[in-house]
Amino acid sequence: MEEEHDNTRPVSIPHDLESEILTRLPVKSLTRFRSVSTRWNSTIAHPSFSKSHSFRSAAVAGDGAPITLILTFINRFNSERTIFSVDIPSDRTGIVPNPTHILTIPGFAHPFVSQPLNGLICFNLGSMCVCNPSTRKFVKLPWTQPEISSPSQASTHHRTNAFGFDPVSNAHKVLDTWITCLENEMIMEHRIFTIGSCSNEWRRITNGPPYFPFNEGVCINGQIYFRAYPSMLVFEKPVLVVFNVNNEQFRFIEMHDDAILNSEETVLMDHDGRLVIVDHQCVASGEDNVLVMWMLMDEEDGKWVKKRVELPAIYGEMNDRRRYKFAGTTFSGEMIFTEKRLVDPFTVLFYDIKRNEVKKVEICGLTDFEFKFGHLVMNVTGVNEHVESIISLFQ
């Protein structure tokens, strides 16, 4: 006699397998599934789950695959930040409709916007702000101001910011620096905020050397890089500042003379996991249609390798300074150039350094959204490839 089985009894799935299945789902589904049970909510909210989900999302975005771009704009009149997302086909060409409006965040007019790190973006809105476009959540950090008051009319305050990720502790950190410039010295006030930590306060760090930074920054393998003047003396050459996000230590690296150019003319970017300074406007070479790169090969010895790439004349469009700006990168190392202002269609150029080729996409429909004072007052602050993230901004 055959034994009968009760097919109505629910099958128990091992928790590890259950978690593995969940990491393959989009953020929109995960957000809904958090209400299914306490167990699922706890699983999805755990930092190890968000790390696994981010890793899988990034792995899907490979070379030649369709990508999602995050576009950020600032309203020149009321300082609102508006964020859009748009899906770009794998061939990086053609007309792309139907951009998605993610968020509009009120704030102060400051140009700082970070590169996306594991799906998170940082802004300076007067107070610092970190946003997760996937969950459409953002958090404004406590207000900061210099503790040192200006002792004289000749002294001034300057503020600079950076956003980094420490792969060792799996922590995202915001670096906020106030610089008080006196007649003969600079006084630095560095503060660190760890996103999602138990403490909702900034921490002071006191080991930073004096410097006056360029308005730039890129985080690679747990280190934030930016160029800066090491003192107030105009004849001193800029240096490369390296901030280790894990131990929160600063150090300087000397740069090749040709690479010491204004950040409006040369840019920092991540290329195959190494820092690269790119002169994409032929400033250093003095030649038309030539791109020059300096790659940092050895940080300890300060060794740089210079590479010169001749661009076909047809690629000169991306170096039209009046129309286009360097706006960001893709994970595969493509440089992204975009219109400086919001127009329709909105042109995005992808320059693949390895293949030495440019592809063009036209995004239609961005001007269909309502903007206070109209779309003509919207300036581009950043366009980067984006991966979905379930990372929580709150403890």
TrEMBL record:
Matching Pfam families: F-box, FBA_3
Identify the CDD domains for this entry. F-box_AtFBW1-like
Superkingdom is Eukaryota
Extract the coiled-coil ranges from the record: none
- F-box domain segment(s): 7-58
Q: PROSITE patterns attached here? A: FBOX (PS50181)
**Protein name, as recorded:** F-box domain-containing protein
Q: What is the organism of origin for this protein?
A: Mikania micrantha
